[in-house]
Amino acid sequence: MKVDKKADYGVFQHKLMQRFCAIALAAFLVVIVFYLFILQQRVGNWIVGLLKLFMRIEEEEALLIYYFYFREYKEVFFSVVMIVVFIFLLWQLFRWMTRYFKEIDQGIDSLLAEDENEIHLSPEMMPFEKKLNTVKQTLAQRNAEARLAEQRKDDLVMYLAHDIRTPLTSVIGYLNLLEEEADMPADQREEYLQITLDKAYRLQKLVEEFFEITRYNLQQINLYKDSLDLYYLLLQLSDELLPVLSGRGNSVVLNVDENLTVYADADKLVRVFGNILKNAASYSYVDTEIIISAEKNENQVRISFQNRGDAIPDEKLALLFDKFYRLDASRMSGTGGTGLGLAIAKEIVALHGGTICAASKNGLNTFSVCLPAAN
After folding, report:
1. Which of 156, 41, 173, 28 is nearest to 86 (CA)?
2. Dihedral of the CA atoms 149, 152, 158, 163 (nearest 10)?
């Protein structure tokens, strides 16, 4: 890479050196020519002629003025001419170099312009042109991603607000029925109470998702790393999520070496694996297994979560870890979340110096997390 950079800037350096040498040579030639003219007394003849023309005097009087006032101080005049020549040529050089700064300044202004026009500079400034265009493309991409995330968040808030009204209306309706009909049969009352409780739980989940959206923008993740027993951590997490998994008849199969350890923050890692497991439970086929496996490779540990479910299109795999992206565009209330779980998981894994990715093939969806192994 260093050789390429030198080659790129070599054209610009060569152009500067070429122009500087040309200016220096021009100054040298002008001074030499002027000095030769003085030696050959051509300049003296010109001065005498000018004195006769403008002062309207005879040639002898003009010669006397030339010898007394010009010839005796020829070194002074020669020095003044040299200084004037060098100042003029240096001014031309600085003016020429200033043009480059103006081009760069215009390029920086173009970075702020929200258009797709590329920045164009002089051919010798190609390295600067490439970097400015790269920065412009990066800024445009980040702005587009920010706008997309903001739009997804706004849509999600609108969806959640709509979903909150449905269970809330049901809760109010069934409670009114229970209040108005005091002599309602016991079995019907129990049924209405169960429906009301289910709707209340759903309402609680939606409110928690509202808080999750707010927390994501406000949180600052700090890590407290330590050597962790990976097998025990995954086993404990599987037990804690058993109610979530059993709701669809899913179960966890743990294929992890009991002596495998990682160097990570336990609380943050539980959040990562919990988000992946919940996601797997939401999109798995009913009554299927979620297989968790792990293997050590050099200084890293790779943890994989596999589940059977609908195939994920290739173009959507990379979007799974974007903020507020949800795979179920239809916004099914039973599975649709905030779209933050995997985005938060990616951020936590990145802070650990690891990576997270997803793959889908033949109905088998796999989420893989690579983390530094404990020493």
Report:
1. 28
2. -120
